[in-house]
């Protein structure tokens, strides 16, 4: 992974095969991030996401896609060090999916930008 820092912005350019959730957690810890916005895009595989199953309390039904897909939207926030991201993408045969990001492995050219609002 390559990290580029500019003012209050961090750009994470991931190598193929990296665990996106683990990297985000490591960066939050390493930089002491308390609040930030998150956005990104690129290719992923072994994607796990949740779709809303129940509203009160919120409960997600887990979904899994093993093959590589294009993630066109990866948006969320960090609040009190908690990462919350929603995403949408398209896989082979025009399979469209979206929901709450749980985990994924980066493919070629996956990047995430963090706009830092508050640190320790």
Automatic annotation (TrEMBL):
SUPFAM superfamilies: AF0104/ALDC/Ptd012-like (SSF117856). Residues 4-120 form the PPC domain. This is PPC domain-containing protein.
């Amino acid at each position: 992974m390559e990290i580029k820092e500019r003012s209050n912005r961090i750009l994470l350019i991931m190598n193929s095969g990296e665990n996106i959730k683990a990297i985000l957690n490591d960066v939050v810890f390493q930089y002491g991030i308390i609040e930030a916005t998150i956005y990104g895009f690129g290719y992923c595989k072994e994607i796990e996401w949740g779709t809303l199953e129940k509203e009160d309390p919120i409960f997600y039904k887990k979904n899994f896609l093993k093959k590589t897909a294009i993630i066109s939207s990866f948006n969320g926030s960090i609040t009190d060090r908690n990462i919350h991201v929603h995403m949408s993408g398209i896989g082979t045969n025009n399979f469209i999916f979206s929901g709450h990001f749980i985990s994924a492995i980066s493919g070629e050219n996956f990047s995430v930008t963090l706009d830092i609002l508050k640190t320790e």
